[in-house]
UniProtKB/TrEMBL annotation, chain A:
The lineage of its organism: Bacteria, Pseudomonadati, Verrucomicrobiota, Verrucomicrobiia, Verrucomicrobiales. This is DUF1800 domain-containing protein. It holds the Pfam family DUF1800. Residues 77-96 are annotated as: Disordered. It comes from Luteolibacter flavescens.
UniProtKB/TrEMBL annotation, chain B:
InterPro entries: DUF1501 (IPR010869), TAT_signal (IPR006311). This is DUF1501 domain-containing protein. It comes from Luteolibacter flavescens. PANTHER family: BLL7424 PROTEIN (PTHR43737), DUF1501 DOMAIN-CONTAINING PROTEIN (PTHR43737:SF1). Pfam families: DUF1501 (PF07394). Coiled coil: none annotated.
């Protein structure tokens, strides 16, 4: 066990926990969280009252609707094929293309809906840790809508992550083996006896359970044979194990032999020592800091093993530990783009952020929900930041704080602009790049529409008029809101000087917006 | 173009005249003034220097269907569904030919401007995309380096250079740019590569912005270390650099480079037609920046989608076709600008694929593959020997050329710098750079 911190805590510590284990909050939210005390606050995160199904899914993502729709599509496809028999080859070709294009359009539109649904859930949920863990699992068991294509399957995977968010990691790994989206992403459904596809076998060891270097190429080859025969019915999304396509022979994985199927291999993986430390290390890095001390990881690994790979006790240990609140860790993690966006919305107390812009901002900042760059997920920490993404963060903050009245139209997404497509050219994708270009154009159009009517935050609420009488007080209040900790003399001084220079006759909402933008256009604001 | 140091000296002190400049900053600038004297020896290109474009084929390019050993029966029998027939290739020799999705590279080969290096790899290859990419980017087969091979070139040969000595046309920074001092910059769109303030009183706001995005640290020594901050590594920073120091340095680099890039990119409008694919647009932007006179020595672009486990034929041919057409436009554009003699382009990929196809009509992760070197300065032809398709190691091709030898050839033959300190070892050069 890691040494625990006392129940008593400061408001800075409460804000830190709410940022890391969730997406931060408004000053009022932080104050009531602080009032719970450290231990009850941790428990409230781990046992939220909000049920898993509290947010209504988009209609198309509901199980029954989706099944009915898949049946209808199968019928439509059959009919199309029948009618094509009487057509000239050119006409048949065109008919097929139109059918597929229509399908693609629908998928794209739903993909954007799915992104919006999840982001709004992160913003409004009363169970923030659960959503933060869904994001963790999405990164850990990464698959992308660009290859999977069917948004309903990505939403199904998202629900799988939510059900197991703080539950058994082992159960979740068994679940991911038979998750339709993952099967499509790693080609499991085409892997057959005699000619196994090694994709899933490799990634389940390298990226999901053990980590690179903790297995041999022979283990992968043998395990790949066990992962054969899992079929996915694309018409109804159900998964079944086809014994005829399964290699039922003896395999030897990590020295254990048997007529293994996929579930058997996963059990063997969890017997390996590396399985106990791999995820705890990643969780510490996700919630606290990179490069954790080995003795800390070892302590967490012992707890994880003892709890039979249950995540909840592990998280309790992390969030109660002294180490989690140390100076080296507080406000020293680089926000992920999703964290940056959701937290900014919460700090600005936005009722309803501009949706289309939010999708576009994810693309520019380098983290689009349901679209990790490859099966290893996103690179975190310093990898989020380069000259390009840093300037983009500043500009996204500018648009959100000032609204369309104050910001000039950013450069159009013309042919020279490859904002989103660079990342889309990542590894592991077999996607239609031409389609990405069209999608980019559409997102750009949505963006322009969104920009025409975004009014910005409610500054009367964030910076009440009386506060504006005193620039120093105004700055301190906003610093508290955006940083939840006192800033260095230089930064505070700069903000105060700026506020003083603006004071004049009236400190309007426009000036407050500019001050907010300036605070967010700093290296400090990128840290959590 | 200004260096970080010049920039700090002239711009900040000038623009922040209304500020009380702390004592330590003044001392720092006094010191920088001394440091700036070595500018004359910096390794930036000027407008006539040589330029390397590194093009990553991300996902593990299938070398065997790129450079096809069409005369080898073993190739056809290992790949009943994937093998290219003799009429589907552009013959380069009586043994190998290019996939016919690449007619432009075929013509470049005939003109003697395309070097094709066969059987490239490294000892004890790793089949993980991520580890192997990292090995290629760091040029360290133990994969323990915190800096990249291009970043070490910047550190060794481009001291005092502007941050734009390396530009990655990616949203993320390639590991190969990881450097102790200058990791280059990333951008995806010059139009958006600036701080958009908006509203009134722009200058005043930007002045505050500038000061808030300039690294200053009361605890730092007065020798300018806080400004010439170490950087780079696996995720863009080295051990010991705090996240805040890292952010401040990136903020500074963004400020120094953004105005110039915006200005230069707007100058040149190409007359050559490019496709709308990401790789074509990246190369278009590279050509615009070259035309505008950026002092950049290394550009980095990426072309993804090569992880062809499944139904490989169509996707692989399509990707190679996109690459070929993008390169055709790029070299035509450089020629129209008169910059074609200054540029060499090198492709790489983290590994090749297995010799045999899998049940999904695709290929799994393998080992050796081929590399292309293209440009007027390249001595065209085939290099290395094509790996045997029957003498295999666990179903994989054995490599005959170490990729670090190709890097050494480019470093010494084109960037004119000793390769040893960059690659931390001696590797046989090929004659490809003359």
């Amino acid at each position: 066990m890691l040494p625990a911190a006392p129940d008593e805590w400061t408001i800075q510590e409460a804000a830190h926990l709410l940022r890391r284990a969730g997406f931060g909050g408004s000053p009022a939210e932080i104050a009531s969280f602080h009032a719970l005390g450290r231990y009850r606050a941790v428990d409230s995160l781990l046992s939220p009252a909000e049920p898993v199904d509290a947010f209504v899914l988009p209609e198309w993502a509901k199980r029954e609707t989706a099944a009915a729709e898949m049946r209808e599509r199968a019928v439509a496809q059959r009919e199309m094929r029948r009618s094509m028999q009487d057509m000239t080859p050119e006409r048949a070709d065109r008919t097929r293309r139109e059918f597929n294009q229509q399908q693609q359009r629908l998928y794209r539109q739903r993909g954007v809906e799915a992104q919006g649904w999840w982001l709004r859930r992160m913003l409004y949920t009363k169970a923030p840790l659960r959503e933060k863990m869904v994001l963790f699992w999405h990164d850990h068991f990464a698959s992308s809508i660009q290859k999977v294509r069917q948004p309903v399957l990505m939403m199904g995977q998202n629900e799988l992550f939510r059900r197991h968010a703080t539950g058994s990691f082992k159960d979740l790994t068994h679940g991911i083996l038979k998750d339709p989206a993952m099967m499509l992403y790693l080609d499991t459904q085409t892997s057959k006896k005699g000619k196994p596809n090694e994709n899933f076998a490799r990634e389940v060891m390298e990226l999901f359970t053990l980590g690179e270097g903790n297995y041999t190429e022979q283990d992968i080859k043998e395990a790949a044979r066990a992962f054969t025969g899992y079929n996915l019915n694309r018409q109804n999304g159900t998964v079944f194990h086809n014994r005829r396509q399964w290699d039922g022979g003896d395999k030897t994985v990590f020295g254990r032999s048997g007529k293994f199927d996929g579930d058997d291999v996963i059990e063997v993986l969890f017997e390996q020592a590396a399985a106990a430390s791999y995820v705890p290390r990643k969780l510490w890095e996700y919630f606290a800091a990179e490069n954790p001390p080995e003795e800390g990881v070892a302590a967490l690994a012992r707890s994880f093993k003892a709890a039979d790979f249950q995540v909840e006790p592990l998280l309790r240990e992390i969030f109660r530990s002294q180490a989690f609140y140390s100076d080296k860790i507080v406000r020293n993690q680089i926000k992920s783009p999703i964290q940056f966006l959701v937290q900014m919305f919460k700090e600005l107390e936005l009722e309803s952020p501009p949706h289309a812009y939010t999708v576009s901002a994810q693309q520019q900042l380098g983290q689009v929900l349901f679209t990790p760059p490859n099966v290893a997920g996103w690179d975190w920490g310093k990898a989020w930041i380069n000259t390009n993404t840093l300037l983009t963060r500043y500009n996204v903050a500018g648009f959100i704080t000032k609204g369309s009245q104050e910001t000039p139209k950013p450069a159009r997404n013309n042919g020279d602009d490859s904002m989103m497509t660079m990342d889309d050219a990542g590894m592991g994708m077999d996607m239609q790049m031409e389609q990405m270009d069209r999608r980019q154009m559409r997102v750009s159009n949505q963006l322009q529409r969104a920009q025409q009517n975004w009014d910005g935050p409610d500054y009367e609420k964030i910076a009440p008029r009386p506060l504006r009488e005193d620039p120093e007080k105004l700055v301190d209040s906003l610093v508290q809101r955006f940083f939840q900790t006192p800033l260095g003399a230089k930064e505070r001084g700069a903000f105060v000087e700026y506020a003083v220079s603006k004071k004049g006759a009236i400190f309007t909402n426009k000036e407050v917006g500019e001050l907010c933008h300036l605070m967010m256009s700093t290296p400090h604001y990128q840290l959590d | 173009m200004k260096t970080r140091r010049e920039f700090l000296r002239s711009t900040i002190l000038g623009a922040s005249a209304t500020w009380t400049v702390p004592m330590f900053v003044e001392r720092t600038f006094a010191d920088l003034h001394m440091g700036a004297r070595d500018l004359a020896t910096q390794g930036v290109t000027g407008k006539d220097g040589t330029i390397l474009v590194v093009l990553q084929l991300a996902g593990g390019n299938d070398g065997l269907n790129t450079l096809v050993p069409y005369a080898d029966d073993a190739y056809h029998s290992a790949r009943p569904r994937l093998a290219k027939k003799e009429k589907q290739i552009i013959k380069l020799s009586d043994h190998v030919g290019l996939n016919d999705s690449m007619p432009f590279l075929g013509s470049m080969f005939k003109e003697g401007n395309l070097g094709v290096v066969q059987g490239v790899g490294y000892p004890n290859p790793n089949r993980s995309h991520f580890v192997s990419t990292s090995i290629w980017e760091t040029a360290d087969i133990q994969n323990r380096s915190s800096t990249g091979w291009i970043g070490r070139y910047f550190d060794n040969a481009c001291t005092g250079a502007d941050p734009t000595v390396g530009i990655s046309l990616n949203k993320t920074q390639p590991e190969s740019f990881g450097a102790a001092r200058n990791p280059g910059v990333c951008l995806s769109s010059p139009e958006l590569y600036r701080w958009i303030h908006g509203g009134g009183e722009k200058a005043r706001a930007e002045e505050f912005f500038a000061s808030l995005n300039s690294p200053e640290d009361d605890d730092s020594p007065v020798d300018g270390a806080s400004i010439d901050m170490p950087a780079g590594g696996k995720v863009g920073g080295i051990d010991g650099e705090s996240n805040l120091a890292f952010l401040e340095r990136v903020a500074m680099d963004a400020r120094v480079s953004s105005a110039k890039i915006l200005e230069l990119a707007a100058k040149h409008r190409t007359k050559v037609n490019y496709e709308g694919t990401p790789i074509a647009r990246s190369l278009n932007m590279v050509s615009r920046l070259i035309a505008g006179g950026m002092p950049t020595r290394v550009y980095y672009v990426s072309h993804g989608g090569f992880d062809t486990h499944n139904q490989q034929v169509n996707s692989h041919d399509r990707l190679l076709g996109q690459l070929d057409r993008a390169l055709k436009s790029f070299f035509a554009d450089l020629k129209a600008q008169g910059n074609d003699k200054r540029v060499v382009l090198m492709t790489f990929s983290e590994f090749g694929r297995r010799v045999g196809e899998n049940a999904s009509a695709g290929t799994d992760h393998g080992r050796a593959s081929c590399m292309f070197l293209a440009g007027d300065a390249v001595k065209g032809g085939l290099y290395g020997s094509h790996p045997s398709l029957t003498d295999l190691d666990q179903g994989d091709l054995k490599h005959s050329v170490d990729f670090r030898g190709v890097y050494a050839s480019v470093l010494e033959g084109w960037l004119k710098t000793p390769a040893k300190p960059v690659l931390k070892g001696d590797f046989a050069r090929l004659g490809v750079m003359g």
